[in-house]
């Protein structure tokens, strides 16, 4: 039998959907043209409500140039850029340690991250900067600031980003291919089963052509969502039993962002990202603009909700030396180059 607090939290999940996007609708609002700064601020930023905008980047030369790999090669021929290699395209996933078999043992799993989100488009990939706008003008005016970071994402059909949130207002522009998002509002934090996992990275051997996992030393714990929304058919029932608040709760919002479209992803929204190439078979390419969020009363509401121990990890199951609930909350507020984000 659920407690009164549990019923209230579950009611909150439904009310947020009904007030923001419609109680029985998992689609995101679409705009045929860019909003005015006032409309954007009033109808979306202030309401912490996502939307998809068409015809906002149709003037970018990148849309016609970047799907051609020879052009990218020429433009970046003198640039030193970072590449992040993984055996499966999942650069921020939770994976089991080779020496453990217990799925429910936190010490037997790792969350590893290797994606740069440190303003790389304006540094490593500056040879392509002229093909895009330096900011999103109507968002810059509405938010009263320039982007803190502009990042470039290049990947293929294997690239996938697990559920996470960012402390930024995110304008996400797809240049080539398609991005497939699952979105959950900040009020659904308990459904993410956020737990502390040891951080690790993949290491690639040129001699053997194989990957190995290397746990960071000293051990650093990262708060991360335990939920995989697309488990294999063999593990689906077990995953549903382990994470019932996610699988048996309200459906996440789903949207596909095509080349030439922009997603406004409000701060603190949880998102999972997959992608597919365009009709020309080119890799998926996107640019995102991170604007600093306002740490106002909405942030205080979220921190309060997160502190309620409904469906969260019981203290006795934390691995020795892992952070407390307070530490987990503090660790989640990282600088751009320390966060894990979209591929």
Automatic annotation (TrEMBL):
Domain JmjC: 112-306
Positions of the UniProt region annotated as Disordered: 313-343
Residue spans of biased composition, Acidic residues class: 330-343
Similarity remark: Belongs to the JARID1 histone demethylase family.
Name under which the protein is recorded: JmjC domain-containing protein
Lineage per the UniProt record: Eukaryota, Viridiplantae, Streptophyta, Embryophyta, Tracheophyta
